[in-house]
Structure formats: C-alpha cells, structure tokens
C-alpha cells in the first residue's frame, strides 16, 4: 500500500550439525600443508650412445688404474674378482677361467631381472676393462709404492670408475649385478651390499694370505664401497 514502510530483516537459517557433517559446503576445500606435498622430480633422462661410450671409457680407465695400484703393491681386491683370485690360489685353474665362470650365473640373473640392455652394457664394460687392465702395466709403473697408500688410491679411483659405469646402466659383472638389482627392488644401497660380500671374502682370504696385506687390501675395499654407497643414490640422480 501507498505510504507503507517495509523493514528488511536478516534471514537466519539454522543448520543441524549432523546434516552439516553429512552435506559439507562445496565452497570449502582443504589443502595439505606445503611441507607435505611431494616435490616435483624430473623424469629420468635416457643417455645417448655417445654418452654411454665416453662413460665406459672413463670408468674402465679409472678401474684399470685402481687395479694397477693393487697389483703393483701385491694386494688383493674384493667382489667377484677377489673370489676368482682366491679360487685360483686353491686350484690349478687360472684367474681368467674362474672369473668367467663366476660371472655366468650373474649374467643370466641380470638378463632376467634387469633386462638385456643392462647385461649387454655390462658385457661391453667387462670386455673393455679386461683389455685396458692388460695394457695398463705397459704405460703405468711405480718405483716406490706403499701398500697402504696403494690401497687408499685404488679404492678411490675404482669407486669413482664404478659410479660412472653404474650411472650409465651397466656394471662390471659379478656381485655388482645382484647389488644393483637389490638396490632397485628394495632400496638397499648397492655399496653396503658389496661391502658385506667383501667382508666375508676377506675373512676367507685372511686364512691363506699375509695378515698385513689383507688389512691394507681391506682399506681399499672399504673405500670403494663407501664411495659408492654415499654417491650412487637413486634419489639424487635421474639419468639412465
């Protein structure tokens, strides 16, 4: 009606707490705290053939130099190569024969678990190391070499050489294949696995070899595996 006054009153709506829990407001959205969000990680990059080639050359050169340090000082090594050395001492078969035979089951295991690409790369790396280590004494020699210094130097360069080879999807055969598979499958670092194998190997070697040489050789084995365990980690390297 004309002249009538209208007053607007606020609309009050009561919502039952049980219904509020059943029908939450669509405008409300909760976000996880920033610290709980997973950080973005880039996808692994595939190495090119040229990158693999230079890595195998560098890795095998470093490993061959480390082996030269060991042999010049009369020391022993770990891994499958060390097992082959001990078996050659206890039998008439040569180191090369034992090393070849000990690697066969690991090649089969690697083919089934890690794929043919990994095994083929490993065969190439092992062949290159065999050739380079055979030629190394013709180019590198030592007039004075302390066994303890030789062990530490060999552990450092062999560890770096193995990391280069590992990061390009290969190994030097033997227990390294099993260690890499366990790292990929269960997250246990390959260096710790190889360190455990070396501990058993050197315990056996101490029965037949000079204790001081065993201790010096053990220093090199520890250096190799510590370098690998602290520098070869899946969460810090995305190349393949």
Structure description:
By secondary structure, the chain is an all-alpha fold. The protein has one domain. 64% of the residues lie in helices and 0% in strands. It is built from nine helices and no strands. It has helices spanning 17-22, 49-72, 79-90, 95-113, 116-135, 147-166, 175-186, 190-208, 211-231. The longest helix has 24 residues, at 49-72. Residues 23-40 have low confidence and may be disordered.
Describe, in short, the structure shown:
Helices cover about 65% and strands about 0% of the residues. The protein has about 240 residues and is an all-alpha fold.
Tell me the layout of helices and strands.
Elements: H1 17-22, H2 49-72, H3 79-90, H4 95-113, H5 116-135, H6 147-166, H7 175-186, H8 190-208, H9 211-231
Membrane topology: Multi-pass membrane protein
InterPro entries: UPF0750_membrane, YitT
Subcellular location: Cell membrane
Comma- or semicolon-separated keywords:
YitT, transmembrane, 240 residues, transmembrane helix, mainly alpha, cell membrane, 64% helix
Strand content: under 5%
Kindly name the structural category.
mainly alpha
Count of helix runs:
9
Mean pLDDT: 75
Question: What is the terminal separation in angstroms?
Answer: 84 Å
Topology as H/E string? HHHHHHHHH
In total, how many domains does the architecture comprise?
A: 1
The outline comes out as globular
Question: What would you report as the Rg, rounded to the nearest angstrom?
Answer: 30 Å
Number of strands: 0
Low-confidence stretches: 23-40
- Helix percentage range: 55-70%
Question: What's the assembly state of these chains?
Answer: single chain
């Amino acid at each position: 009606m004309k002249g009538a006054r209208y007053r607007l009153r606020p609309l009050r709506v009561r919502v039952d707490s049980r219904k509020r829990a059943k029908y939450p407001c669509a405008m409300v959205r909760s976000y996880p705290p920033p610290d709980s969000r997973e950080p973005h990680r880039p996808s692994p990059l595939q190495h090119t053939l040229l990158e693999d080639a230079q890595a195998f050359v560098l890795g095998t050169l470093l490993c061959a130099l480390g082996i030269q340090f060991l042999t010049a000082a009369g020391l022993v090594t770990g891994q499958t190569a060390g097992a082959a050395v001990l078996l050659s001492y206890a039998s008439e078969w040569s180191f090369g024969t034992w090393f070849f035979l000990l690697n066969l089951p690991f090649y089969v295991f690697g083919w089934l678990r890690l794929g043919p690409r990994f095994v083929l790369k490993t065969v190439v790396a092992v062949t290159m190391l065999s050739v380079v280590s055979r030629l190394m004494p013709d180019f590198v020699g030592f007039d004075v070499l302390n066994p303890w210094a030789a062990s530490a130097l060999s552990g450092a360069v062999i560890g770096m050489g193995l990391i280069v080879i590992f990061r390009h999807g290969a190994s030097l055969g033997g227990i390294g294949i099993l260690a890499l598979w366990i790292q990929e499958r269960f997250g246990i670092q390959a260096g710790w696995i190889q360190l455990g194998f070396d501990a058993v190997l050197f315990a056996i070697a101490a029965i037949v070899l000079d204790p001081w040489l065993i201790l010096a050789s053990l220093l090199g084995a520890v250096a190799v595996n510590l370098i690998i365990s602290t520098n070869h980690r899946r969460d810090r390297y995305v190349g393949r």
